[in-house]
């Protein structure tokens, strides 16, 4: 028996508007790129951005045929997450992207 759980997050704009109304700084991004380990016909699932955030250092050994665009996307997402972790702002202009 297959059981499917459908998760429908609240609309992004409503969430952002509600948070900023109360003075909470909020950011979001929409990932449309399927991970290298997830079947593309299923789209992007919850947590689908994890490989783009956490496997950058193992990309060449685990996925030697990764497209340059996928590598660049991993670097960009990693840059914003590190900025957020260190400065509580993903758009920190002081950090330089190498």
Secondary-structure map:
Blueprint: H1 12-21, H2 50-54, H3 59-62, H4 68-87
- Proportion of strand residues: under 5%
Major sheet details: none
Which class of secondary structure composition applies to the elements? mainly alpha
Tally of individual domains: 1
Quick one: how many beta strands?
0
Helix content: 25-40%
Q: What's the average pLDDT?
A: 72
- Element pattern in H and E: HHHH
Termini Cα gap? 49 Å
- From the alpha-carbon coordinates, what is the Rg to the nearest angstrom? 16 Å
Number of helices: 4
Low-confidence stretches: none
Using the alpha-carbon principal axes, give the shape: flat
Tell me about this structure.
The radius of gyration is 16 Å and the shape is flat. The model has no long low-confidence stretch (mean pLDDT 72). By secondary structure, the chain is mostly helical. The chain contains four helices and no strands. The protein has one domain. 40% of the residues lie in helices and 0% in strands. The chain has helices spanning 12-21, 50-54, 59-62, 68-87. 4% of the residues are buried. This is Carboxylesterase type B domain-containing protein. It comes from Rhizoctonia solani.
What does this entry show, briefly?
The chain has 98 residues and is mainly α.
């Amino acid at each position: 028996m297959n059981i499917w759980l459908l998760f429908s997050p609240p609309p992004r704009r409503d969430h952002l508007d509600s948070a900023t109304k109360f003075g909470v700084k909020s950011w979001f991004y929409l990932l449309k790129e399927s991970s290298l380990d997830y079947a593309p016909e299923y789209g992007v699932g919850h947590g689908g951005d994890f490989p783009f955030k956490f496997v950058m250092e193992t990309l060449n050994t685990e996925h030697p045929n990764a497209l340059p665009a996928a590598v660049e996307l991993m670097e960009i997402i990693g840059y914003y997450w590190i900025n957020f972790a260190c400065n509580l702002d993903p758009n920190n202009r002081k950090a330089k992207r190498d």
